[in-house]
Specification:
The complex is a heterodimer.
Chain A lengths: L7 H5 L3 E5 L2 E4 L4 H14 L3 E4 L17 E4 L6 E5 L4 E5 L4 H8 L4 E2 L12 H7 L6 H4 L6 E7 L5 E5 L11 H5 L8 E8 L1 E2 L3 E9 L2 H12 L7 E7 L2 E10 L1 H14 L4 E2 L3 E2 L4 H11 L6 E4 L4 H14 L3 E5 L4 E4 L19 H13 L12
Parallel strand pairs in A: 2-4, 3-4
Antiparallel strand pairs in A: 1-2, 5-6, 6-10, 7-11, 8-9, 8-10, 12-14, 12-15, 12-16, 13-14, 13-18, 17-19, 18-19
Chain B lengths: L2 H14 L4 E2 L2 H4 L16 E3 L4 H14 L3 E4 L16 E4 L6 E5 L4 E5 L4 H8 L4 E2 L12 H7 L6 H4 L6 E7 L5 E4 L11 H5 L8 E8 L1 E2 L3 E9 L2 H13 L6 E6 H8 L13 E9 L1 H17 L4 E5 L2 H12 L1 H5 L5 E4 L2 E2 L5 H14 L3 E6 L5 E2 L1 E5 L4 H20 L15 H7 L2 H14 L13 H14 L1
Parallel strand pairs in B: 2-4, 3-4
Antiparallel strand pairs in B: 1-2, 5-6, 6-10, 7-11, 8-9, 8-10, 12-14, 12-15, 13-14, 13-18, 16-20, 17-19, 18-20
Helix pairs in contact in B: 1-3, 8-10, 8-13, 13-14, 14-15, 16-17
The chains are: A alpha+beta, B alpha+beta.
The structure holds flavin-adenine dinucleotide.
The site of flavin-adenine dinucleotide has 36 residues of chain B, from β3, α5 and β10.
């Protein structure tokens, strides 16, 4: 039996959307309907993959197993829980981050991660891909901010892990494992996120140089100050590199931090400290966010600071497609990468290792029949 | 002791040496309970491996023998996580106390998991670094226990609980395999197994080593003690700090009974005895940041009726302000022979209402409750003083514990913020989670420990899992 033969409309009470890359796009409208789709997949031996529905599914690549059906989460959209005095938000998986930002920012909260393209990044997509944002240096990776998720499983159930609270240790942190698991442990249908205060003020330092060594030295000098930068990022330009560093906080603190940073790297130009609300800096921050364009891939060397400086240097020598480097994180963005979301990781889990076996057991625990298609990069 | 057990002890001794196996009953009795003192069971054997390799060899043997295993750090846990189980062997980390590496430049340390929390800070403070999570038990509890419980502490308001600080682990699995995830990586390779392990309460494996992020010591620290004549108002002040997005590093509340207990003890910290509550807040960072944050804190506290706000930057004065908080549990030991430390989380904008409800639950049952808690995280700790030799009082304590869980769940809260489920909160799991939720968690547990030999009968109510399993089999 193929997916075409299944009468989805009759079974799920819903129409099948367009057919993309030979597989129908299902559009469940409730979280239970997502689980029902997966259960059907399990009963009929099909493979499925969840997509945000904001874009057409991407073509199957040589190393990617074709799926039998796509599950678009486009209809699972909107807030589930939001209290402006709590500092948390819960939303359905298909909600674009821009929608959360539009609600949280006027109330003084910032949504993490600060992704390049919040209109086209959904809550479910970012969690499955484990995308961290521009503020990763200061605020840590996405998995530190995911408080809980609801997961649709191929056995037809929707289960929760974690909660909507900022602190909680009840039950296993399956939501941590689901963050970055590329949907292999279940389809994220809802998530709760911790918010952080929107900055009251900020400043931005920038500097252009034709020499990578000089840019890297300046970045390292900034990182060795006590200033907790939001980000320190170098972008390749036709004639060299632009180094940008951001700090945000209270206006009076920004002034002190600006002085310390400029003492360490006097050649950098400062925007001056300005308030965030309605000021030009908020717009400039958006530009820095967008400097990592949609469709680009990133490479996370994953090692801690000192070792990675040499690795970054080696990479710059060996590859022409390095477009930007996030200092202090060994995060490198490549031009025209084939992997737009998943960080390309240089170290993979050795086949047959204790770790690989455990990962397999975990996948089988939640998806015993392999309905949730494995992604190529994992 | 049966012949089989004697043989097992001998085989283990061959791996661990004479100091690594305790089989005399007098040596085993001290391990009969953790901080949940009314649940006790003397373990059949206690083993104390020295290294990961010894631990793995011993665990292989125990797997072959099909023996249940309970991990234990310092035994300060408050939910019965380290309570021995019938017919089981207790694996203690007391001889795994080495700090293996401190990489000050990259700000991480690798330690054996028997290292005591505060000793890690002592080991790295010369480099201007410290380990941020600071449970009140930090002078005794181990890194392994902290990892297993995902422990918190006052400063986790700013720095996050244990899971945010664990970069890697070495785990000995139930079958005695070594899972080495110790490389200090910024992003996990494959699934985030480290993140999943943290908080697994000894049911996934024995953590033998941990790679831990260290935090730079702040330039300036300031502590404030706001004195309130009304507990409700102190709670409201905290809710407003959250709503105004003020970012100190710790926000704690102590109520009248706690203040009295502290002030009547050798730990007296100079808290005014006529206060109904004190708010203890700390901020850290550069001078201007700290001043501005503490000005906000003081303003909000005064708006909510604080009659006095004492601020201190001097280390000795700060220590004095904290002395009451740090010594609270010890001081309450004077009120009654036993202390039941409850632990629940609630939404922070509903603090006042829930602290009241919890206090009322205890009053209705004629129990003495003292609240000392991580208010900034909405993490309540109603501490009930009792005497476990009085069966009726114990019954009322447990009943109050259940009622507290129920009101917190009804308000959108959760069962435990840092002490774990262990044995204590098993029944609550069925109130908070659906059968499907629990079944999924059981399957995750079995992926780590297929025979469910690690801490059996704890953390997840097995009955619920088994019922779901049957239902599922019928469905497919
Ligand atoms: C006075 C007092 C104050 C406290 N304050 C706090 C507080 O502020 N915040 C807080 O979070 N907790 C607090 N606690 C609770 C307790 O101290 C913590 O849960 C602590 O992390 C337990 O550490 P331990 O070494 O004593 O572990 P144990 O009690 O020995 O064990 C706790 C759990 O961890 C497991 N375990 C231990 N070591 C390992 C290992 N190496 N590998 C796998 N599993 C392991 C055990 O099986 C058990 O399930 C307090 C306790 C007391 C008595």
């Amino acid at each position: 039996m193929t997916t075409r033969d299944l009468d989805w409309a009759r079974i799920l009470g819903q129409a099948v959307g367009e057919v993309a890359w030979d597989a129908p796009v299902l559009r469940p409208t409730t979280e239970q309907a997502v689980a029902d789709c997966l259960l059907l997949g399990q009963q009929h031996g099909l493979t499925m993959r969840a997509i945000s529905g904001l874009r057409t599914p991407r073509p199957a690549r040589a190393n990617e197993a074709p799926v039998d059906a796509w599950i678009s989460l486009e209809a699972l959209r909107g807030l589930v829980d939001w209290h402006p005095h709590e500092g948390t938000v819960t939303a359905r998986a298909g909600t674009p981050l821009a929608e959360l930002e539009a609600i949280a920012e006027p109330a003084g909260w910032r949504v993490l991660p600060q992704v390049p393209n919040p209109q086209h990044t959904t809550v479910g997509g970012m969690i499955s891909a484990g995308i961290s944002g521009l503020e990763r240096l200061r605020r840590g990776p996405l998995r530190h901010h995911v408080l809980g998720v609801r997961l649709a499983l191929p056995n037809g159930s929707v289960v929760r892990s974690g909660s909507r609270l900022v602190k909680n240790v009840t039950g296993y942190d399956v939501h941590r494992a689901a963050t970055g698991a590329r949907g292999e442990l279940g389809v994220v249908v809802e998530a709760s996120l911790r918010l952080v205060p929107l900055p009251r003020a900020a400043f931005r330092l920038s500097w252009n140089s034709s020499s990578w060594t000089a840019v890297d030295a300046a970045a390292q000098a900034l990182l060795s100050t006590s200033v907790e930068f939001d980000c320190v990022r170098s972008t390749r330009m036709p004639d060299g590199w632009t180094l940008v560093a951001w700090y945000s906080g209270r206006a009076e603190t920004c002034a002190v931090m600006e002085q310390e940073a400029l003492r360490a790297v006097p050649q950098m130009q400062s925007s001056g400290v300005d308030t965030w609300d309605g000021g030009p800096l908020a717009a400039a921050w958006k530009d820095t966010r967008a400097s990592e364009a949609a469709g680009e891939g990133c490479l996370e060397l994953g090692c801690l600071r000192t070792e990675c400086a040499t690795q970054v240097e080696q990479l710059l020598k060996s590859r022409a497609d390095v477009r930007l480097v996030d200092h202090g994180l060994a995060r490198i963005v490549l031009r025209d990468s084939l992997h737009p979301q998943k960080p390309v990781q240089p170290h993979s889990v050795a086949a047959g290792s204790v770790q690989a076996q455990l990962e397999l057991r975990l996948r089988r625990a939640l998806d015993p029949h392999g309905v949730l298609a494995r992604s190529p990069a994992s | 002791m049966t012949a089989a057990l004697r043989q097992l002890a001998d085989d283990l001794r061959a791996i661990l040496g004479p100091r690594g196996v305790l089989d005399e009953v007098t040596a085993r009795v001290p391990y009969e309970c953790d901080g949940l003192a009314f649940m006790r069971h003397v373990p059949d054997l206690v083993i104390l491996p020295r290294t990961t390799r010894e631990c793995a060899a011993a665990m292989k043997l125990l797997a072959r023998a099909g023996v249940p295993v309970v991990a234990r750090g310092a035994g300060t846990g408050l939910s019965g996580g380290a309570t021995p189980v019938s017919g089981g062997v207790l694996v203690g980390t007391a001889r795994m106390r080495d700090v293996l590496e401190i990489d000050a430049r990259n700000r991480f340390a690798r330690v054996q998991t028997g290292v005591v929390n505060v000793d890690l800070t002592h080991a790295c403070e010369a480099h201007g670094l410290y380990y941020a999570p600071d449970p009140s038990s930090q002078k005794a509890c181990t890194i392994g226990g902290n990892v297993a419980e995902n422990s918190g502490g006052p400063h986790c308001f700013k720095h996050g609980t244990t899971s945010r600080h664990i970069l890697g682990l070495v785990v000995v699995t139930a079958e005695g395999e070594v899972l080495d995830l110790s490389r200090p990586l910024l992003e996990p390779q494959g699934l985030d197994l480290v993140g999943l392990f943290v908080g697994s309460e000894g049911t996934f494996g024995i953590a033998t080593e941990a790679t831990i992020a260290l935090t730079p010591a702040p330039e300036v620290v300031e502590t404030a003690l706001a004195i309130h004549l009304d507990l409700d108002a102190a709670c409201d002040a905290v809710s407003q700090m959250i709503a105004e997005r003020v970012e100190p590093s710790a926000i704690e509340i102590l109520d009248k009974l706690t203040i009295e207990a502290v002030e009547n003890s050798v730990l007296a910290a100079g808290y005014p005895k006529d206060a109904e509550a004190v708010l203890l807040v700390e901020a850290e960072g550069c001078d201007v940041e700290v001043r501005a944050t503490m000005d906000d804190v003081e303003r909000i506290a005064r708006q909510h009726g604080a009659v006095d706000v004492r601020r201190a930057r001097d280390a000795a004065q700060r220590t004095k302000l904290w002395a009451g908080r740090k010594g609270a549990y010890g001081a309450m030991g004077r009120v009654a022979p036993d202390l039941y430390v409850s632990d629940a989380v609630v939404p922070r904008h509903r603090l006042r209402e829930l602290v009241r409800a919890v206090t009322e639950i205890c009053r209705e049952r004629h129990l003495k409750v003292a609240n000392v808690f991580h208010a900034g995280d909405g993490n309540l700790h109603p501490n009930i003083s009792y005497d476990r030799r009085n069966p009726d009082e114990l019954r009322r304590v447990l009943e109050a514990g259940d009622e507290i869980m129920k009101v917190c769940i009804a308000a959108g809260g959760s069962l435990t913020g840092e002490h774990g489920v262990g044995l204590e909160k098993l029944s609550g799991m069925e109130w908070l989670f659906t059968r499907d939720d629990l079944a999924a968690q059981c399957r995750v547990r079995e992926a780590w420990d297929p025979m469910v030999r690690l801490n059996p009968g704890k953390t997840l109510p097995l009955r619920a899992c088994m019922e779901t399993r049957t239902k599922e089999q019928t469905r497919s």
